[in-house]
Amino acid sequence: MTLRAAPIETLESLREHLQWAIELEHATLPSYLCALYSLDERRNPEAAEVVSSVFVEEMLHLALAANVLNAVGGRPQLDTARLLPAYPRFLPHGDRSLQLSLVPFGAEAIELFRAIERPALPGAAPESEEYETIGQFYDAIEGGLRALCARVGESQVFCGDPARQVTTEPFHHTAGRLIRVDGLQSALAALEEIVEQGEGTSRGEVWDGEQDVFHPEREEVAHYYRFEELRMGRRYRRGDTPQSGPTGEAIPVDFDGVRPMRRNPRLADHAPGSPIRMAQEDFNRTYCHILGLLERAVDGSPRVLDSAITAMYVLKGKAQALMDLPDGEGTTAGPSFEYVEPGSR
Predict the structure, then answer these.
(1) Each residue of 263-299: b (16+ CB within 10 Å) or e?
(2) What is the largest CA-CA distance in the chain?
(3) How much is the average pLDDT of 135-150?
(4) Which of 198, 179, 169, 154 is nearest to 67 (CA)?
(5) Tens of pLDDT along 222-249?
(6) Is residue 276 part of a domain?
(7) Number of structural domains, the chain?
């Protein structure tokens, strides 16, 4: 099996790629949040369940990647301008054919999310940079972990302070596991959790190995297939495959029950002191405050994670207030997700 880009052969390179993994998991969050906040949950309860569950699981994946980085002696970074370049943007160190945008829920958002979560083809090579799928990128990290442990010894690779592990579980709307990483097997389990929730078990099944948190009587499908369900308006059932598509019960999706947020909002679109710009600036300060809390949580203060999750509820109210402000040509305003330095929050 060939590896695209340079293999991960040193502990320094492994730490660098795990930081990229954190940045990758974060990069998707603003796009998911815009789609989620734009939904009228009374008219679209099923769509809101899907998008919120994926968002929370991406937060879980971020924490898992940080646990692996901490376990190998790294220092996760989240409160930095590098995490919030202007949208539209590319996935960090990924294939530049995929561009992330901030758009309301709808056909465009569903296609974007399917592209983000697209499963790797069977036998696809690991890709340590310019990865075509997220699964291939994590395969490269797994290969680097295994090779380093074989060459220098597991105790030399997993040299981090165990007290830095995030082990509390404030993640609602997910059956996923937040794994304490203390060696190769637990690190591989954390990587497997990330990939299976996105692509499905055994890279070819629609299921992610968990029970659906909203509907415990059903098994949960992976992220890509949850968006396929919304696209097709029908649920997967046992016996369905990626090739058959979903053949189960219908899912009602009201594409008119959505706040018509302007695509890729920017502060520069509005004059300083205008109501929309002031609301966007307030949102950005809150979001960057959350990034600061998340960094503290994964950089040695795990208990702070609860505060970061709680602050998300405040963020939701500010985003939906923005989406109630008309922004011309039948659209409303929306959050711009631009970085604010700590001294200006």
Answers:
(1) ebbeeebbeeeeebbebbbebbebbbbbbbbbbbbbb
(2) 61
(3) 96
(4) 179
(5) 999 999 999 999 999 989 999 999 999 9
(6) no
(7) 1
